[in-house]
Specification:
This protein is mainly alpha-helical. Helices cover 53% and strands 0% of the residues. The chain has a domain at 54-113. The protein starts with a helix and ends with a helix.
Length: 140
């Protein structure tokens, strides 16, 4: 990522991507991100053509990539099997904790339905306080 605004602008200019010179860095970054093209590798296309799915693992992440566990040890099929089992166990733990997080997050999110608009007039006449307003005043 470019750190200077001028470098971001120059990058956009080199790629002939229009932008407003007055934009802030965060807005320029959105434009840059929107025009980035995902890298495609020939090997991925060959694998997909054979009916397989390409799964890109995070690099240097031994919790999810068993080969990282074997880099500094003697490779044996038994050791590979243990590393593979370790990764599967970690994946299952990640899935379980992710579900817990999603469930807790969903509990905290307030859904706004149609009609839940702050701009709508209440049925009460102006000048009258609702019970909730009075409770608020009492809490202060």
């Amino acid at each position: 990522m470019k750190s200077l605004k001028i470098e971001m602008q120059q990058s956009l200019e080199r790629r002939n991507i229009p932008f407003d010179i007055s934009l802030r860095k965060c807005d320029l970054m959105k434009i840059i991100d929107g025009h980035n093209v995902e890298k495609q590798f020939m090997i991925d296309e060959i694998i997909k053509a054979k009916g397989h799915t390409v799964l890109c693992l995070p690099p240097y992440h031994p919790d999810l990539n068993p080969i990282e566990l074997l880099l500094f040890s003697n490779y044996t099929p038994e050791k590979w099997s243990k590393c593979d089992d370790h990764v599967i166990k970690n994946e299952n733990e990640y899935y379980a904790s992710d579900r817990v997080f999603d469930d807790e997050f969903d509990r905290l999110v307030i859904a706004l339905n149609k009609g839940d608009d702050d701009d709508e007039e209440s049925e009460e006449e102006e000048g009258e306080e609702s019970e909730s307003d009075m409770d608020w005043d009492n809490d202060l």
